[in-house]
Protein: Urea ABC transporter permease subunit UrtC
Organism: Pseudorhizobium endolithicum
Amino acid sequence: MITRFVLRALDGKIVVAIGILLAIALLVPALNLLVPLESAFHVPTYAVSLLGKYLCYALLALALDLVWGYCGILSLGHGAFFALGGYAMGMYLMRQIGSRGVYGDPVLPDFMVFLNWRELPWFWYGFDMFPFAMLMVLVVPGLLAFLFGWFAFRSRVNGVYLSIITQAMTYALMLAFFRNDMGFGGNNGLTDYKEILGFPVQAAGTRNVLFAMSAMMLALCLLLASGIVRSKFGKVLVGVRDAESRVRFLGFRVENIKLFTFVVSAMMAGIAGALFVPQVGIINPGEFAPANSIEVVVWTAVGGRGTLIGPIIGAVLVNAGKSYFTGAFPEFWLYALGGLFIAVTLFLPKGIVGTIQQGWSGRKAMKAAEDAEKGRDADVLPQAAE
C-alpha cells in the first residue's frame, strides 16, 4: 500500500523537485564545511541558516497550498500552526539550557525566574525529552486544527467568513502568548538556546545538519502532499474545491474531507515552525501576527496555488527579495510586497508555475491540433487525385 502511494506520488515534476531538494541538502553543507573560506564557492554559515529559513517558509507555503490550492480553504491563520510548532521546539531547547542560564536555575527557564515563578508549569513537563517535544510539534497544531475544523466545517462556514475566523484565531493566540502569566516568555518569547540533542546550536556543523533536515523534510512533505492530491481522495478534494454542493450530493462527507486535509496541513506547518526556531534562534508571539499568515498567501499566489511546486518557488523568491529590500530599501518593502501581489493577481492569476504549465499545455494542444489538421489534409489530397 505504501509502495503504491509513493509510486503514484512520483510524477515527473515531483521527482525532479525532490531530486533538487536532496541535492541541495548535500551540496550547501559541503560548500560550507569543505570549501575554503577564500574560495568563491564557499557558502558562509549565516547564508546556510538564511537558506534554511527559506526552506521552512517553503514548507509552510506547501502546507497552505494543500488546503487552499486543492480544497479551496483560504486559511489566513496558518501562521498560528507554524508558531505552535515553533514554541514546542523552543520549549525543548529552553529545557536544555539547565543551569547554564543567567540565573543558574537547573529547572526553570530564566524568564520564569525573573517573573518569580516557583515551579515549572504542568504543560512544560516532558519537554526535556526530544521525542516528546517532537510529538507535540505534530499534536498541538493538529489538535487545534481538528477542534477548529470540527466546529467550522460542520457549521458549513465557507469562503471569506472562514478566512476571517482563521485570522481571528491567530490574532487571539497572539494576544494570549503576549501575556507574561501564560508561561511562554511573554513578548520576549523563548531564546538564548544552547544546544539541541547535545550539540551546540550555534556550531557550523549543527546549522548544516538543520539545513539538510529542512531540505529533506520539505522533500518528504512534498512527496506526501503529491501522494494525497494524486490519489482518489485528491480527486474528491478538487471536487470539493470546484463544486462542493455536487460532491455533497454524491454522498461524500465533505466536512470530514476538509477536516482531514486541514489537520494534515496544520501538522506540516508545525514541522516547518519546529525547524525554523533553532535556525533563527528565537520564537516570540510576533509569529502569530495575522500579517505573517497573509504573507504566506502571497508566497503561494506568486508561485502558483494548486501546483505544489509553485508555493515552494514563491516562498523562496519572495523571501529572498524581502532579504534584499529590507536591507537596501527597508521603507519600501511593504509597498513592494503589495505591488507584487497586485501584479500577480492582474497579470499572472495562476502564479509563476501555473502560468508556465498553462502555456505549455496550450502549446501542446495547439501542436496536436496542427498535426490533426495536417493528417486530414493528407487524407484529402489522395481522394482529390482519384
